[in-house]
Write a structure and sequence with these properties.
The protein has 433 residues and is α/β, with parallel strands linked by helices. It contains 12 helices and 20 strands. Helices cover 30% and strands 20% of the residues. Helix 3 (108-119) packs across helix 4 (135-143). Bound molecules: guanosine-5'-diphosphate, 6-O-phosphoryl inosine monophosphate (IMO) and magnesium ion (MG).
């Protein structure tokens, strides 16, 4: 397959970075299409650990070209800091990293506003538990058509427009009772950072379309997950972009019919970081045990992730809205020590059985999981390298997830490293490791 979109099937942190890294071996281009440095994609290569926030995980493989598409929001200072970290990790990015001239900028006043909105303390205020990276306010400016784009950095009036935007956002900060930003400090800082970005700004829509026309392979790296999608997720407890597969087209300029394959990444259980309903959340020792074994702490904010059983209603919904062709099921090894494992197959809403995900957050919050229980496998899987190495109960668990979600598993992952990945019998014919 020449064009593959990879998205998260739950609430983010499914292990997308690891799977992108595995698939990058056979790709020419890796493109992010939405979000910003709210993402945290951890990739382990040998003994080294890299945490990518904005830069596509594909950058870790020599010779691969990476793109930040028009659907992204880019924080210049955050981007440069991350770039420096990647360089310190021994990765040469020269000529391999391009920023769409149509991508929006996430600027210091967006961050300040994000923080201010989250700090509100009145009854009407919905606290989302954002990453405070300015994502919502940056997309607000995009949608109201006042945002600054990467291409604007190259224009003579950039400084003037930046200053004007900052002054306008100071009025909003004042409304929130926050200290205004000093233009004479902030503007020069932004200019110093954007100056360094100039050499990477290009019309990536043309470049990527030309690559696709030549039959080169492109991997679209999703950030966040289906349930955090601005339209399809658990609104309002979502991020501000389209995290689902359609976002790959609008967020890069590649037409939808040129996208050949959609991969959903799901954990073998569920996690969520931030506020909002989560039907299968475990508040007991089992939840704490999953968090401990799975090392469930956010890569961007360090916050503890909420943990619970696999939710097949969510995953089925993800298959529908993304058109998922196959799953990469990650962190299977985290369930190695459990006597029994539960899967949520439907919800109970005030005595009514609900099979599909409700749109309204109040109804979703009322959903109680209806569980099916399966025996655990109670032995380590991390050493497994083939499907047949896996214990029977473990294979049965994967098979059940496939049945319940109406999509096959192509990969299962039994550890964070590249080689801790197994190709399943249901994998598409052209897929190999
Ligand atoms: P992403 O945001 O979807 O890329 O996921 P994160 O990187 O935020 O979180 C996934 C975490 O699980 C990272 O620390 C990975 O190194 C780790 N990980 C990925 N796959 C596996 C796996 O199969 N087993 C275990 N134990 N850890 C994994
Ligand atoms: P990756 O790509 C998990 C969550 C935040 C919050 C909500 C809105 O690593 O899977 P935002 O800062 O985007 O306005 O926050 O979305 N969130 C994530 N949760 N993984 C992520 O990215 C996330 N990016 C944002 O915790 O609930
Ligand atoms: Mg993450």
């Amino acid at each position: 397959m020449a064009t593959r979109v990879l998205i998260g099937g739950q609430w983010g942190d499914e292990g997308k970075g690891k799977i992108v890294d595995v698939l990058t071996e056979k790709a020419n281009w890796i493109a992010r299409f939405q979000g910003g440095n709210n993402a945290g994609h951890t990739v382990k290569v040998g003994d080294k650990k890299y945490v990518l926030h904005l830069i596509p995980s594909g950058i870790l493989r020599e010779g691969k070209t990476c793109i930040l598409g028009n659907g992204c929001v880019i924080d210049p200072a955050g981007f440069l800091q991350e770039l420096a970290e990647v360089h310190e990790g021994g990765i040469d990015t020269t000529g391999r990293l391009w920023i769409s001239d149509r991508a929006q900028l996430a600027l210091p006043y967006h961050k300040a506003l994000d923080g201010a909105r989250e700090a509100r303390n009145n009854d009407e205020a919905v606290k989302i538990g954002t990453t405070k990276r300015g994502i919502g306010p940056a997309y607000m400016d995009k949608m109201q058509r006042t945002g600054l784009r990467a291409g604007d950095i190259l224009e003579d009036d950039f400084e003037e427009r930046l200053r004007q935007n900052l002054i306008e956002h100071n009025q909003l900060l004042k409304l929130h009772g926050q200290t205004e930003l000093d233009p004479d400090t902030v503007v020069p800082e932004v200019l110093a950072a954007t100056e360094q970005m100039k050499v990477m700004i290009a019309d990536t829509t043309q470049t990527l379309n030309a690559a696709v026309s030549k039959g080169e392979s492109v991997l679209f790296e999703g950030a966040q997950g289906t349930m955090l999608d601005i339209d399809h997720g658990s609104y309002p407890f979502v991020t501000s972009s389209n995290t689902t597969s359609g976002g790959a087209a609008t967020g890069t300029g590649i037409p939808p019919h040129k996208i050949e394959d959609v991969i959903g990444v799901v954990k073998a259980y569920t996690t969520r970081v931030g506020e909002g309903p989560f039907p299968t959340e475990l508040f007991d020792d089992l939840g704490a045990e999953i968090a401990r074994v799975g090392d469930e702490f956010g890569a961007t904010t360090g916050r503890a992730r909420r943990c619970g059983w696999f939710d097949a209603v969510v995953a089925r919904y993800a298959v529908m809205v993304n058109g998922i062709n196959w799953w990469a099921v990650t962190k299977l090894d985290v369930l190695d020590g459990f006597e029994t494992i539960k899967i949520c197959v439907a919800y109970d809403v005030n005595g009514e059985r609900v099979e599909n995900l409700p749109a309204h957050i109040r109804k979703f919050a009322a959903c109680k999981p209806i569980y099916e229980e399966m025996p655990g496998w109670n032995c380590p899987t991390t050493q497994a390298r083939t499907w047949d190495d896996l214990p029977e109960n473990c294979k049965a668990y994967i098979k059940r997830l496939e049945e319940l979600t109406c999509a096959p598993a192509g990969f299962v992952s039994v550890g964070p490293k590249r080689d801790e990945t197994i190709l399943t019998p249901s994998a598409p014919a052209d897929l190999s490791l």
